[in-house]
Design brief:
It comes from Pantoea sp. BJ2. It holds the Pfam family EamA. Keywords: Cell inner membrane, Cell membrane, Lipid A biosynthesis, Lipid biosynthesis, Lipid metabolism, Lipopolysaccharide biosynthesis, Membrane, Plasmid, Transmembrane, Transmembrane helix, Transport. It is a multi-pass membrane protein. The chain is an all-alpha fold and 106 residues long. It is built from five helices and no strands. The longest helix is centred in the middle third of the chain and has 28 residues. The chain is flat. The termini are close together.
Length: 106
Amino acid sequence: MNLLLILLVSVLSCAAQLCQKQAAHLGIKKGISWLALSILLLGIGMLLWLAVLRVVPVSVAYPMLSLNFVLVAIAARLIWRETYSVQQWIGTLAIVAGVALMGSHL
């Protein structure tokens, strides 16, 4: 359950970051609704994060948020066709390995 909450916080944070990218792409006037959605998602994520911190040590929970780097990179690749170097993908895999090690304690 704790791992699912952390994953949900990461997904909400990722979605918020993607909304911010879309708002930036459209410009402030046209992207204001994307920006508002981003703030809403970040707020919900923060409330869930507080629930996580009640039951998971911050030394374990916080590094797990590194999943955001992976989720945002994959989503940006799929949505905006952003390209990544081999070095970037190796770094992303290293993050996944680290998160897997941290998650084994939950």
